[in-house]
Write a structure and sequence with these properties.
541 residues; mainly beta; five-stranded antiparallel sheet; four-stranded antiparallel sheet; globular
Length: 541
């Protein structure tokens, strides 16, 4: 009879379950729907974030879920096989996909793999700064805006309180630093945010004093000093071997042991050329150009005849052209000799700053207090005929603190916060403060430092309303400075009675504004000092 049962069950496929088997040919495979990646969508997705794979499991026969299979694909490379995945630094800018293959505990066990939509993470940035850790020791720290990732990485000045950063620049996922050292004066260093990945690039050179970092053709150019060449044009690729004098622009000596200096400044990239000013013995300080090779580095144009040369100021670039100021006169250049000429707009004199309003228009600030009537803000498409005055301020007070958010310009005039847009024109935002500065943007909202009878506080302007975010102290001595944005937070220096002067962060809310880390514990102050992307924002202690 046993043989008959086996034969019967083999002959009748639909009767397998009746024969005691667990597989029924009519049993369908499990399914997955709504596969997605879970994270806080209200914030920018950064490396270091832990993602969760989310999906709906179903089975027509109600077979319970077994051990489903997971894969995390980064640019189609398998990087993880659990339901969660922490984004690695190397994943930045790549396509991240969660894939799940449903597996049932019983019945037909494996279904079809289903993938989520892809997400892309931005590299979570860090910044370097210096701070006191005792009364006689100051070291270099990094932070990404979280307490756990705020730590010291180097002590370039052993047992002294003089360690400081003078300039810095982000180089891919590392920072170039001009830092004071015990043995080499101001030296060039590089860090990836770890102690092991922090090193001096210029230990072979004493008192290099690097400044003016500018990226050009996969390298960084800067001004560096050596006694045998003076202040000249240097270059680095981020390695010790690739850090060297690029070109001696003014060779020779003024006197014994005193070299001439080319003193390159205002390094600006325009139309695949590096434009800068430099001194030569024949022409004084004039405009230079480089194609990235020493042989292709030459004087571009003699702007002012004579041995003393020109007095340059306010260099910037916009729409493949460079703009600069010589003794109040505005100029434009495309990087060629013939394309370097005066920028002639009636009344526009002594420009000092600029900011892009959008891809096609810029705002030019002309702060001139020498009797010219058209001091103020101009809007320009980069051409003479497309440049117009939008706000003239004819007193002895200057306009400052330009910031553009979503096509609206914010600026400060005589401690009055103002705004301008081509649609709404110029309007007053607030005059309720004795000081307004440090205009900063976070997630499309304007934040700034304001001072009133309560001291210095963090304020925001949103939906046509100015409101206090937070004071660092309730004792009328609140103080903040050096606002900047790091990842999804505002990072700044704040003082309170409990911790002294330390690093603070804010997500734009009162509860989310707090001390980041008490580096020098108790009421003692670590006196942190930041040096950010541009030399203008470099805070020196």
């Amino acid at each position: 009879m046993q043989l008959l049962k086996v034969a019967l069950c083999t002959a009748t496929i639909l009767s397998l379950s009746a024969c005691g088997g667990s597989d029924d040919a009519s049993n369908t495979a499990p399914q997955v729907t709504n596969a997605s990646i879970g994270f806080d969508t209200n914030k920018t997705l950064y490396t270091g974030t832990t993602l969760e794979g989310i999906y709906n499991y179903s089975d027509d026969e109600q077979d319970a879920e077994g051990t489903s299979e997971f894969r995390w694909l980064v640019d189609n490379e398998v990087k993880g096989t659990t339901q969660s995945y922490t984004i690695e630094k190397s994943d930045a800018g790549k396509s991240i996909v969660f894939e799940v293959t449903p597996v049932a505990a019983t019945g037909t066990q494996t279904g079809d793999a289903v993938q989520s939509d892809a997400v892309v993470a931005s590299l979570r940035q860090f910044v370097a700064f210096t701070a006191d850790i005792s009364e006689n020791e100051r070291v270099t720290f990094v932070t990404d805006g979280t307490a756990e990732n705020t730590y010291s990485i180097a002590d370039f000045n052993d047992n002294t309180s003089s360690e400081n950063l003078s300039y810095s620049m982000l180089l891919d996922d590392k920072w170039l630093l001009s830092t004071s050292t015990k043995d080499y004066g101001y030296a060039l260093a590089i860090t990836d945010g770890t102690t092991e990945g922090t090193e001096l690039l210029s230990a072979a050179y004493s008192n290099l004093s690097p400044s003016g970092f500018t990226k050009f053709k996969d390298k960084t150019f800067f001004k560096g000093y050596q006694s045998d060449s003076g202040s000249e044009l240097w270059v680095t690729d981020g390695t010790i071997a690739g850090t060297e004098l690029f070109k001696d622009l003014a060779p020779g000596y003024i006197a014994e042991q005193q070299a001439f200096s080319g003193n390159p400044r205002h390094l600006t990239v325009i139309n695949d050329k590096l434009i800068f000013t430099a001194y030569s013995r024949s022409f004084g300080t004039e405009l230079w150009v480089s194609d990235g090779t020493a042989g292709g580095t030459r004087q571009l144009k003699d702007m002012t005849e004579g041995y003393y040369g020109s007095e340059f100021d306010a260099f910037f670039s916009f729409k493949n052209h460079g703009y600069f100021n010589i003794k109040g006169q505005f100029y434009i250049t495309d990087g060629t000799t013939d394309g370097t000429n005066k920028f002639l707009v009636k009344g526009l004199w002594n420009p000092t700053l600029h900011i892009a309003l959008d891809d096609n228009q810029m705002i030019i600030l002309a702060n001139n207090l020498s009797g010219y009537t058209n001091t103020g803000l101009w809007i320009s498409d980069g051409s003479e005929e497309g440049t117009d005055l939008i706000d003239a301020q004819n007193s002895n007070n200057t306009i400052q603190a330009l910031k553009v958010i979503d096509g609206v310009l914010y600026y400060v005039y005589n401690q009055i916060l103002m705004s301008y847009s081509p649609q709404a024109g110029t309007k007053e935002v607030t005059r309720d403060f004795t000081l307004v500065d440090s205009l900063t943007e976070l997630n499309g909202t304007l934040y700034f430092r304001g001072r009133n009878e309560n001291g210095y506080g963090l304020y925001q302007y949103s939906n046509d309303l100015v409101s206090l975010v937070k004071l660092t102290s309730d004792a009328n001595d609140s103080y903040i400075e050096s606002l900047s944005v790091l990842n999804d937070t505002i990072i700044f220096i704040g003082t309170d009675q409990t911790h002294g002067t330390e690093v603070w962060i804010s997500d734009g809310t009162e509860n989310g504004t707090q001390i980041l880390k008490d580096i020098f514990p108790s009421t003692a102050s670590s006196q942190p000092s930041f040096c950010h992307l541009s030399e203008i924002n470099c805070i020196r202690r």
